[in-house]
Structures are given as C-alpha cells and as structure tokens.
Amino acid sequence: MRKILLVSGVLLLTACGSYSPLNWLTPHTIDVQQGNYVTQDVVDKLQPGMTQAQVRFLLGTPLMADMFHANRWDYVYTLRNGSTLAESRRLSVFFDAEGKLSKVEGSAMPARRATLDSTPAAAPEGKQ
C-alpha cells in the first residue's frame, strides 16, 4: 500500500511541472474527416444553368446553407490527424435569382482514379 501511495505521489508531482517526463502519456486522438468530400471530376460535371436539384444530386447536400445568402451553398471538408489540421477544402456554389447555377469558386479534392493498365496482359505462347 505504501508503494502505491509513493508512486502515485511521484506521478502527481511530475505531472504538475512545466516539463514532465510523462509527456508521452497522452490520450489517443483519432483521425477525423468532416464535411463533404467533393472531387474535381464531379465539379467538372457542373454546368452553368443547372438547377439546384441537379447540383444537389451531383455534390450532395451542402454542409452550410446560409439563410442570409440563400443563393450560395458552401461545401466544406476538413481532415484532422489527431489534433492537427491536415487538410481543408472549401467549395462555394452560387445560383442566380431563378435558382440556376451561375458560378463555382474554391477548390475540390483531387479525383480518385484507379491506376489500372489499359493494355491486356499477353497470353502465354501456345494458348490463345
């Protein structure tokens, strides 16, 4: 019992100092993705004059829709590795008074494409 009290007292005293030998003893923080993951190939499909329903079909429901700017939708994406911000993207879509797409601003994520070789593998000799 006395050893446990001694060890706990030492741990409490070292944790209170500005330099602690227990800095490695921190809680685990997970990677967190938040928002809309909008890729560039989907943004390339947007065309001026599209309706809001068509834009929502391609990009999904916007993360932020401002009631003071009803003609603007914001698609925000953040990735945190632990407690540090690793990546942040913002894409804004603007509509005219009739609800048609007028312009797109911001940056999207790069397209995720499979890296497959387009040439078929050669068949072994004698087998076709």
From TrEMBL:
Any GO BP: protein insertion into membrane
Residue intervals of the Outer membrane protein assembly factor BamE domain: 35-103
GO molecular function terms attached to this record: protein-macromolecule adaptor activity
InterPro entries registered for this protein in UniProt: BamE (IPR026592), BamE-like (IPR037873), BamE_dom (IPR007450)
Record membrane topology: Lipid-anchor
Region (Disordered): 106-128
Any single Gene Ontology cellular-component annotation: Bam protein complex
Keyword terms of this UniProt record: Cell outer membrane, Lipoprotein, Membrane, Palmitate, Signal
Subcellular compartments: Cell outer membrane
Signal peptide per UniProt: 1-20
Family named by the database record: Belongs to the BamE family.
Quaternary structure, from the entry: Part of the Bam complex.
Function: Part of the outer membrane protein assembly complex, which is involved in assembly and insertion of beta-barrel proteins into the outer membrane.
Annotated HAMAP family: OM_assembly_BamE
Protein name as annotated: Outer membrane protein assembly factor BamE
Taxonomic source organism: Rivihabitans pingtungensis
